[in-house]
Amino acid sequence: MSLQAFFAQNVQAELTEEIVISERFKDKDGNPIKWKLRTVTENENEALRKAATRQVKGKNGVRTQETVQEDYVGKLAVASVVYPDLKNAELQKSYGVMGADTLLKTMLFPGEFAALLTRVQEMNGFDRDIDEMADEVKN
């Protein structure tokens, strides 16, 4: 094995994928438009997780930090969507919302949003069960 394979210039830094999230968004010919998704780095993931973390009051008034899972996966989805540009002010205005998180949840039906979250999580390596990974390590 060569250490060279781990050098930054030899590693595919970002994976992208085009996928139809919803049949409702169509081009001028009536074909479904593909969304472009990308992977995030662990540094980006850490920032998303911190942004979704809240202080909660526990027993005896002790404050602890808790990651709000719904906020986290929503932020992960927004960070992963390259196209359409969810930060585009005109797109947000067309839906009467402000913010990429709110736009995404307004644009998509619940099942479409769930499909997007599933694909984003799979692309970023969250699709594997801990037991599955442990079995691989054993072999």
Notable features of this structure?
139 residues; alpha+beta; three-stranded antiparallel beta sheet; two-stranded antiparallel sheet; 6 helices; 43% helix; flat
Overview of the molecule:
With about 140 residues, the protein is an alpha+beta fold. The protein is about 45% helix and about 15% strand. It has six helices and five strands; from the N terminus they run ββαββαβαααα. The protein has helices at about 40-50, 70-80, 90-95, 100-105, 110-125, 130-139; strands spanning about 15-20, 35-40, 55, 65, 80-85. Strands 1-2-5 form a three-stranded antiparallel sheet. Helix 1 (about 40-50) crosses helix 2 (about 70-80) and helix 2 (about 70-80) packs across helix 5 (about 110-125).
Provide a concise account of the structure shown:
The chain has 139 residues and is an alpha+beta fold. 43% of the residues lie in helices and 15% in strands.
Q: On the 0-100 scale, what is the average pLDDT?
A: 88
Strand order of the largest sheet: 1-2-5
Tell me the total number of β-strands: 5
Structural class: alpha+beta
Ends distance? 19 Å
The number of helical runs is: 6
Helix content: 40-55%
**Cα-atom Rg, whole angstroms?**
18 Å
List the helices and strands and how they pair.
Elements: E1 16-19, E2 35-38, H1 42-51, E3 53-57, E4 63-67, H2 69-80, E5 81-83, H3 89-95, H4 100-107, H5 110-123, H6 130-138
